[in-house]
Write a structure and sequence with these properties.
about 45% helix, alpha/beta, six-stranded parallel sheet
């Protein structure tokens, strides 16, 4: 049987206070293999600010995008917050998914953890102590007010600290194949919480990326691309790429 290589839709999801621009290098690394879609969550990357930010809302936006563009079923890669959205999709909208992959996703939230993260989202402090980062945020989210983006993110994190959108026992309900990745130098996301989610998923793989800190800009895109292609592509597809055959 001849195999026809049809590009599978792959959606890339950015992290909190981020935008699709940060994922463009990854898109370039993957566009020869997948039909890559890079989304901005509402209120990010210049998109209009909604009434609120939340994981369920962002997941519903992704699901609506898949159906609006008639993509059928898709692969989803989520970085940081985007990974949490991918997991939420797998729990509540699995009908639009084939596989999901996450990197540097903080799955476990408490009021203390949320408070710690919110301290780093103070617009006045950023403007005074990190003016170059403030400029990046301004450019990233214009014409929206980057300060408002941070404030709405802080409100979302407060809610997640009070009540996780996905409880650890919920991961056992997710049947979607998943690749859970963590950088070995990530100081925001713990190995313990990442392993707990991996072990709770019935159909998952786990990977540590070497010399990788939390920021997506610090990630080796060649390595990340390899891991995603390896996971998302089927064995038959790999055999065709390698010039070998597999038995059916």
């Amino acid at each position: 049987m001849n195999y026809i290589d049809i590009k599978k839709p792959l959606i890339l999801l950015h992290g909190a206070i981020g935008s699709s621009v940060q994922l463009q290098p990854l898109r370039e690394s993957l566009h020869d293999v997948f039909d890559v879609h890079v989304l901005d969550f509402p209120g990010h990357g210049g998109k209009a600010l909604p009434d609120h930010f939340s994981i369920p809302y962002f997941a519903s936006v992704v699901e609506a995008y898949v159906k609006e563009h008639k993509l059928g079923t898709v692969h989803v890669f989520g970085y940081s917050m985007g990974g949490y959205v991918a997991a939420y999709l797998a729990l509540h909208y699995s009908d639009v998914l084939d596989k999901i992959a996450t990197l540097a996703t903080k799955f476990h939230w408490t009021e203390e953890i949320a408070a710690k993260e919110i301290k780093m989202l103070q617009p006045d402090v950023i403007s005074q102590k990190l003016p170059s980062f403030a400029k990046i945020l301004e450019q990233r989210h214009k014409p929206q007010d980057w300060r408002r983006v941070l404030q709405m993110t802080a409100t979302m994190l407060t809610g997640m600290g009070e009540e996780n959108e996905i409880h650890i026992e919920n991961y056992a309900q997710i049947q979607t194949p998943a690749l859970i990745m963590l950088g070995d130098r990530d100081k925001m996301v713990s190995l313990e919480e990442t392993m707990a989610v991996y072990q709770g998923l019935p159909n998952a793989q786990f990977a540590i990326l070497p010399q990788t800190a939390h920021p997506i800009e610090a990630t080796d895109m060649e390595l990340l691309s390899f891991m995603l292609i390896r996971f998302f592509r089927e064995a038959k597809e790999w055999s065709v790429r390698l010039g070998t055959t597999v038995s059916s």
